[in-house]
Specification:
The protein has two helices and 28 strands. By secondary structure, it is mainly beta. Strand 9 (116-123) and strand 10 form a beta hairpin. The longest helix has 8 residues, at 21-28.
Length: 371
């Protein structure tokens, strides 16, 4: 199977290695200098119509996109392990800026942009305005990492350009048949061991729950019998669901020339890694812990990265033009951001008492202690 669009290696930077408290605090808290990194995020919008004329490969800017700057702790102190991550969002004009603590010597860092959705224009036929079709939510997920050297009182520029893999060939699909698919997406989550009696010894357990709304699923469609056949990539959203309904349902356009009867067609689903803020109660991670001081169970929403455990695939048949093909379930795993206080895990007391917060840490997170 052709590997075209699932390699979202740029997000691996968010799954940070742990570090000892002494390495991070003793190194960073005493930094007197400040280095600045700034730049602009742009993307190739494909085809656009301006003043009635078709413009190819226009450069567009994107606001609200996550930009990540990462520094290995070994840059600050020889032998230190782990990495420090800073995240910011672009302004409406696509610009961003970081202010990073530094010491007397120069240190190295990397800067990259996380995947985002934006409009992408493609041509059905000929350079005419009527032939431009816009994909409203194309996934922009291919960008180069920029290396920067940080020094006190110096400003470095790192402009980032992103392209999309969601380039649909509408001309070849204009007479395509439709194949129905549906499936479920689960997320790693927590639940109380005993909802009636929540105590410090009966706190939380692991649980697979249905995903919430608006997670983007990417579907790759290809003909496995033809080496140079185009691959078509579609995106659709999950919906709120329960035990009687599916997380998603979609009708997939497939070219008429592709033979469903002989198993020539393959479907593969994935979900790009995505970052959530702690305030995001829709897609954020809900951590459960016990507050001994208040004698009650409490909830905390965490910031971090959701990533897909495995990408499922399936082979549709002629039957699936009428009866939906059941895609294998997908599961999203959560990796918390390492510089936050997670009650009962790396934050167990309030500073005035010992062991105020209790959690079973059911997923075995390892984070720098904040107590």
């Amino acid at each position: 199977m052709k590997k075209v669009f699932f390699g979202s290696a740029m997000l691996a930077v968010l799954l940070l290695a742990g570090c000892e408290k002494e390495q991070s605090q003793l190194t960073l808290d005493g930094m007197a200098g400040v280095a600045k990194v700034q730049g602009k995020v742009t993307y190739d919008a494909g085809f656009m119509v301006e003043n009635g004329a078709v413009v190819m490969n226009p450069v567009a800017v994107k606001g609200g996109v996550d930009v990540v700057l990462e520094i290995a702790y070994s840059e600050y102190s020889t032998g230190a392990e782990g990495k420090k991550q800073y995240t910011t969002k672009t302004a409406e004009d696509g610009t961003y800026q970081f202010e990073i603590p530094v010491g007397l010597k120069a240190i190295n860092a990397t800067v990259e942009v996380l995947p985002f959705e934006a409009a992408y224009g493609t041509l059905v036929d000929g350079y005419e305005a009527a032939n431009v079709i816009v994909i409203e939510k194309a996934m922009f997920n291919q960008s180069s990492t920029k290396n920067v050297s940080l020094e006190n009182a110096k400003v470095r520029t790192a402009d980032l350009t992103v392209v999309t893999t969601s380039k649909f060939d509408y001309a070849s699909l204009s007479k395509g048949k439709k194949v129905k698919i549906e499936g479920n997406v689960f997320v790693q989550s927590e639940d109380w061991l005993d909802k009636e009696t929540i105590t410090k010894t009966q706190v939380n357990k692991s649980l697979d729950a249905k995903v919430g709304q608006n997670v983007t699923v990417l579907l790759a469609v290809e003909n496995v019998t033809v080496s140079d056949a185009p691959m078509f990539i579609y995106s659709f959203q999950t919906v709120a669901s329960d035990n009687t309904t599916k997380s998603y349902a979609f009708e997939v356009p497939v070219p008429d020339a592709w033979n469903l009867a002989d198993g020539d067609v393959s479907f593969a689903c994935t979900i790009e890694d995505f970052y959530v803020e702690a305030e995001n109660e829709t897609l954020g991670y809900k951590h459960l812990y016990f507050d001994i001081d208040g004698d009650k169970g409490k909830t905390q929403y965490l910031a971090g990265v959701w990533s897909l455990a495995a990408s499922p695939s399936a082979t549709p048949s002629v039957l699936n033009t009428e009866v939906p093909l059941q895609m294998p379930s997908m599961k999203l795993l959560f990796e918390p951001r390492q510089d936050q206080a997670i009650y009962g895990v790396n934050k167990k007391d309030k500073g005035d008492m010992t062991g105020n917060y209790v959690s079973n840490n059911v997923y075995g997170w390892t984070l720098p202690s904040l107590d």
